[in-house]
Write a structure and sequence with these properties.
Strand content: under 5%
Low-confidence stretches: none
Number of strands: 0
Largest sheet: none
Structural class: mainly alpha
Helix content: 40-55%
Mean pLDDT: 85
Order of helices and strands: HHH
Number of helices: 3
Shape: globular
Length: about 80
C-alpha cells in the first residue's frame, strides 16, 4: 500500500520559516545570502518558501557558523 504525505501548508513567509527553524529573520537572510543569493544579484523584495526549502534551510542552519561574514566578489 502506498501512502502520500501532503503538507498542510504549501507556502511559507520569511517570518514563518524563521519561527519554524527557531532563528531570527536576520539569520535567515544571512543563510540565504551565503547559499542562494551569492552571485552578486539582488535579493527579491518578497520571498516565499515551500516545505522542501525548509529542509535545506534547516541543514544550512546546522552547518553554518553564526559569525561567518561573506566576502564580496572582486572585480
Amino acid at each position: 500500500m502506498s501512502t502520500t504525505f501532503k503538507p498542510e501548508k504549501m507556502n511559507f513567509t520569511e517570518g514563518e520559516v524563521a519561527q519554524h527553524l527557531g532563528i531570527s529573520v536576520e539569520r535567515l537572510h544571512h543563510l540565504l545570502d551565503l547559499n542562494v543569493f551569492n552571485d552578486g544579484g539582488e535579493k527579491p523584495d518578497r520571498i516565499t518558501f515551500r516545505p522542501q526549502d525548509l529542509v535545506m534551510l534547516g541543514i544550512w542552519e546546522k552547518i553554518t557558523p553564526q559569525n561567518v561574514v561573506p566576502m564580496r566578489r572582486r572585480g
